[in-house]
Amino acid sequence: MVTVTVCVGSSCHVKGARDMIECFKDLLTENSLTDKIELQGSFCMERCGEGVNWRIDDESFTSATCEDAVAVFREKLLDTPADASPGENNLT
Ligand code: FES
Predict the structure, then answer these.
(1) 74: domain range?
(2) What is the pLDDT of residues 10-29, one digit of tens each?
């Protein structure tokens, strides 16, 4: 089981953490991964900065937008670039 953790501290919340979680939830559902990837929130990761902070297991990322995060998520967990998936053309 892979764990994806999104910071929901106040700084990341203001920068769109909730939207990011919704994007990840949609990805997990679309790809039938809800039993393989666990999505959870965390308190401040003490890296408040340019964007929303999140992790795949122990690997940390900062994404300025939901689209950026989805691209990383796809690359790391789905092995498909964002523009290779049908039905995802509305992510621009
Ligand atoms: S609020 Fe997310 S890293 Fe601080």
Answers:
(1) 2-84
(2) 999 999 999 999 999 999 99
